[in-house]
Amino acid sequence: DCSGGANALFGSIQDRTDHIERERQLNQAQKMEAFGQLAGGVAHDFNNLMAVIMGNIELLQEENDPFVRSELTGAALDAVLRGKDLTGSLLNFARKAPLRPRHILLKEMFANLEKIIHRTLPAHQDVVFDIPDTLWPIEADPSMLESCILNLVLNARDAMPNGGILKISARQINCRNAATQEHKDLRPGVYVVIEVSDTGEGIAEKDLPRVFEPFFTTKPVGKGSGLGLARVRGFAKQSGGDVQIKSKASRGTSIKMALPASVMDVNPTERSGQKSDTSMARILLVEDMEDVRKVMERRLKADGYEVVSARLGDEALEIFHHDKNFDVMITDIVMPGKLQGAELALKIKAAKPEIGIIHMSGYTRGGLENLGIATSEILLKKPVAKSDLYAALNQVLNRRNF
Description:
Elements: H1 17-62, H2 66-95, E1 102-104, H3 106-120, E2 125-130, E3 138-140, H4 142-158, E4 164-175, E5 189-198, H5 228-238, E6 242-248, E7 252-260, H6 268-272, E8 282-286, H7 290-302, E9 306-310, H8 313-322, E10 328-332, H9 341-351, E11 356-361, E12 378-381, H10 386-398
Parallel strand pairs: 2-4, 8-9, 8-10, 10-11, 11-12
Antiparallel strand pairs: 1-3, 4-5, 5-7, 6-7
């Protein structure tokens, strides 16, 4: 120092290379364990769904009674929709695809779901519905809402192996100045609260704080993916709502999902998803998978549409150059060849601006961000349900004032 006195500097050096490497290995091991649990759950669910589909199709080949055939077909279709929901869970979890909110009347939605829910539960489990007619419509994505409710129903079913009662109810709340005590994160406004409760085994108190974590599950290995409740919570939050859970071991579980209400009425055509008076339209169908292309073409032709199909984008463009008399183009997005669905749509639109475009893909929007699909354009997720297809056709064809 300035006075000429002696100075001393004390310090230590520690090599943390091994410590950092051990942390990295631990994190990697935890990730692999989580993905292994996810893969086991998904594989288990898919194998069950394939067993249902295969078994019902085999029975259909041997059955002549039309009523029994209808029942078998319905069971197979339900399994297909559950498989679609499972892949949707994975894709939405990975990419957080944008929702498509619409006005939903709960009474009508549960009238459609009631048969599926009854079929899902075994004989020794009862279900009670309490959905008032006076509820305001909900502002949410209808397919995601149905998926979340069915997920909660399946959880309740699994929690009551010895029988019990499942109750599904709904009520309206008004958060005037602040959120309610139960739903502390809600903004002021009107909400509809959907409650799914059971009299099952319940959840241990130590596990409750973790039930909404991705990959966490209280089910045995291979019995669940650990994404169900995480997806429910993500959907509620993304929709401007909230979800809460109460449970006690051996006393049952109650899950309450609050979603924003809307005073606007629902368009009857939009609500039903049925085919309107647009079946004389002419459609250009572009799909590289032959089986998918054939079944869609057969479905559309059976309902009165005129369909011309193409396997690839280049083939579709050549057809269009020779004949532009199409009202709608339904195209897959990811196909072999250089001309993908988004670029094909741009070329078709440039030549005929008034044509309606419907995109299809096994990916969500989040997986297609680099392919030029605008959020305002219609995107149907495969497998495409008949109701979704006709809702999309109604939307694009009604713009043309058919």
